[in-house]
Design a protein that fits this description.
This protein has helices at residues 37-47, 126-135, 150-156, 159-170, 173-184, and strands at 2-9, 18-21, 77-85, 102-110, 114-119, 122-124. By secondary structure, the protein is of the alpha+beta class. It binds adenosine-5'-triphosphate (ATP) and magnesium ion. ATP binds at residues 32-39.
């Protein structure tokens, strides 16, 4: 699975709609302190289903919505769209919603109304989105996304935590989600 495009609207410091094309190969994001580099990584994690405000450096989930500055009023929603090429990836649970190799997942949060997801134009649950990306060996908690200061966490991780990281990297994390789901039924 390859990320092709990312579109942010009202997400953290990206108040105006901003679209980024991500070319194959290594992508570097450079800029002065506070310009929004980490916010970009958080946008990717958020659209993939991140549900912990703490790992988004916020107190509550609505903190991802542009909070306003002295010259701009706050926004009442934030939206992130991620466009992926799914060639070679298993996109289970959503095969009917993937047209060809294109997959677009959109997450939107409105003040007071929580967040909602769409995958290729259809309403889906957070769980479905988590599965799509877990199967593709990526996702909100994947070691493919390394935040500032997280290298130290890997070194200090307990064996069980390290095992979870390896399972994510191996692309089998989705199986655990399904097992949990099956056990609840
Ligand atoms: P560094 O080089 O220091 O790591 P960075 O490029 O990673 O910086 P970020 O941490 O991504 O920068 O961006 C921080 C900026 O985003 C700050 O200016 C902060 O005020 C702004 N920001 C974060 N959340 C919001 C929000 N909800 N509304 C408006 N601005 C926000
Ligand atoms: Mg940063």
């Amino acid at each position: 699975m390859q990320i092709k495009r990312l579109r942010l609207t009202g997400f953290k410091s990206f108040v105006e709609p901003t679209e980024l094309r991500i070319e194959p190969g290594l992508t570097g994001v450079v800029g002065p302190n506070g310009c929004g580099k980490s916010n970009l990584l958080e946008a990717i994690r958020w659209v993939m289903g991140e549900s912990s405000p703490k790992s988004m450096r916020g107190g509550g989930m609505e903190d991802v919505i542009f909070a306003g500055t002295s010259s701009r009023p706050p926004r009442d929603f934030a939206e992130v769209a991620i466009h992926c090429d799914t060639e070679g990836a298993v996109v289970a649970g959503l095969s009917d919603a993937t047209e060809g190799h294109e997959l677009e997942v959109i997450r939107r949060i409105e003040r007071g109304a929580g967040s909602a997801y769409r995958a290729n134009g259809r309403d889906v649950r957070a769980k479905d989105v988590a599965l799509i990306f877990a199967d593709a060996a990526t996702g909100a908690h994947s070691p493919a996304l390394v935040s500032q200061g997280k290298i130290a966490n890997v070194i200090a991780a307990k064996p069980t935590e390290r095992r979870a990281m390896l399972e994510e990297a191996a692309g089998i994390a989705g199986l655990h989600v399904r097992r949990k789901d099956a056990e609840q039924k």
